[in-house]
Amino acid sequence: MSGLASVLELPGLSPPVLALLMGAALVAGWVDAVVGGGGLVQVPALLLVPGLPATHALGTNKVSSVMGTTAAAATYRRRVGFPSHVLGTSLLALAAAGCGALAATRLPTEVFRPVIITALLAVLAVTVLRPDSFTRSAGGSGAPGAAGPPAARARAGSGRTVRCLALGAAIGFYDGMLGPGTGSFLLIGLILLVGMETLTAAAMSKAVNLATNVGALAVFALVGAVEWRLGLVMGTANMCGGWLGARTASRLGPRFVRAALVVVVLALLVRLLSQQLR
């Protein structure tokens, strides 16, 4: 209770607004754990706080997101497991996110909105038109256990690692600079470009997304654009949502993840298109 009272001392933050922020953080954690895109819920809610600058809303969002993705990644690790190259990919994504956040302080993000919309349309098309991608087994194309001579399997494993690293670097930079749909891009990239089965891809996407959140948060913290008390309180709700979302996805399986991805990508597209057409 003392923590909530401390948060309510912030200018412009009333009990109803705090309740709205806590609810948004809970929903955002659940959505983010399943398919990514929790920022679609959480950032607009933070922008409703009177007097909170937009940069502080982004930085505070990262505090909550770090806590939520930590809970989701830990749950996925216990229930699904991580592939062997998760550490290297996550570290590269963390560094790239820091670079992206630095770039975000110098470039107008509106320039990139048409690119984001195009990428989301591509994700939506693939998700709808290629449902078989979400039912791929762990031994499918590019998987470490694929049939063939040892040398061929070694080459396939090496190629898979390179694709993971490249995806982690690209998505990490994007998350630091812009952010909308990061988890969705990671999920679809790990399934289609790397060849992971759906739940393994969901698990790894949370580990990598945790790294990108940490990298971006470090930069926001250095420039003083974080409201720590609010972020920590929202992060508690986000962690509950992340834990529930990871359990839901691992229990209901790939079909549920695919359906949730369609809904989240459509919501992102509606929001971004409305901003583009203003």
From TrEMBL:
Subcellular location: Cell membrane
InterPro entries recorded: TM_pro_TauE-like, TSUP
Transmembrane segments: 86-105, 111-129, 185-204, 216-236, 256-274
Membrane topology: Multi-pass membrane protein
Alphabetically ordered keywords of this record: Cell membrane, Membrane, Transmembrane, Transmembrane helix, Transport
Similarity field: Belongs to the 4-toluene sulfonate uptake permease (TSUP) (TC 2.A.102) family.
Stated name of the protein: Probable membrane transporter protein
Name of encoding gene: yfcA
